[in-house]
Fold this sequence. Notes:
45% of the residues lie in helices and 17% in strands. By secondary structure, it is of the alpha/beta class. The protein has two domains: 7-186 and 225-250, Rossmann fold (3-Layer(aba) Sandwich); 189-222, no CATH class. The strands form two sheets. A seven-stranded parallel β-sheet has the order 3-2-1-4-6-8-9, sandwiched between helices. The chain has a two-stranded antiparallel ribbon with strand order 5-7. Helix 1 packs parallel to helix 2 (39-50) and helix 4 packs parallel to helix 5 (155-173). The chain is globular. It binds NADP nicotinamide-adenine-dinucleotide phosphate. NADP nicotinamide-adenine-dinucleotide phosphate binds at residues 11-12, 14-18, 35-38, 41, 62-65, 90-94, 113, 140, 142, 185, 187-188, 190-193.
Amino acid sequence: MDLSGKTALVTGGSQGLGRAMASAFHSAGANVALLARRDGPLKDAQKEIEENGPGKVGAYQCDVTDAAEIETVHKHVVEAMGPVDILVNNAGKSEAHPFMSISDEVWQSDLDLKLFAAVRLARHIIPAMISKRWGRIINVLNTAAKAPPPGSAPTSVSRAAGMALTKVLAGELAPHNILVNALLIGQIKSDQIQRAYDASDRSTSFEQFVVEAGKRLPMGRMGEASEVADVALFLSSDQASYLTGCAINMDGGLSRVV
Ligand SMILES: NC(=O)c1ccc[n+]([C@@H]2O[C@H](COP(=O)([O-])OP(=O)(O)OC[C@H]3O[C@@H](n4cnc5c(N)ncnc54)[C@H](OP(=O)(O)O)[C@@H]3O)[C@@H](O)[C@H]2O)c1
């Protein structure tokens, strides 16, 4: 798959799934802009990805919950590598609690991170995609978006909103050849899983924790970030030219709904 001449912006591009997706895009020839809050992981990712190929790799410190920061960083990305052709809304974190324990502040910050960041970035980026008659938007969500279990708010509710946003944008943007899809993540090895381990009783090693959690999944193992990146690369390519408005379970069979 060839993304030469394209520019991809990946939020949460400094580690985990975002870093793997950005690396795959860059290996396919794209320029990539990585957005995250912490400079250290951003610089590490930039250095590692730059070694893959000739495209530009930009590291941008940005809190995507902040509308003004998003606007400024988007301008800097366009100045450095041209209009964004591929937008991946990936920045996020696990936030699941019993409903009655969730304050307004927690609801608002989860929606700011998982819904409004995607809304605001899309609003900045879509006009140039329309001018070029080409664009790809991928919203990284989780399996709870389709099948929210008890105790999964506010994440499941924010993710369901992200799935609705995916469908609305897919319908509105299809006439402009801009394809919008969602990846619904199950359990993929990453820092998020490391944090779940850190919060556990840590009675085993991290490696054993991953193996044991994997055994509870239909495929018998957790997924790898590179497996998510392969699907994101396909969705971003010309080969995916008639695929839009889909929410794809990337979960090794975990979700009980299609
Ligand atoms: N891994 C899984 O099994 C799993 C399961 C379900 C859903 N997901 C979702 O998939 C996405 C990627 O997950 P991951 O496992 O790769 O997570 P991760 O390793 O924790 O990485 C999260 C990334 O998002 C960035 N980020 C977090 N808050 C941000 C903010 N306010 N502004 C800008 N960047 C921010 C982080 O960098 P900074 O902290 O430096 O900002 C980091 O680059 C997330 O949305 C996550 O919720 C993952």
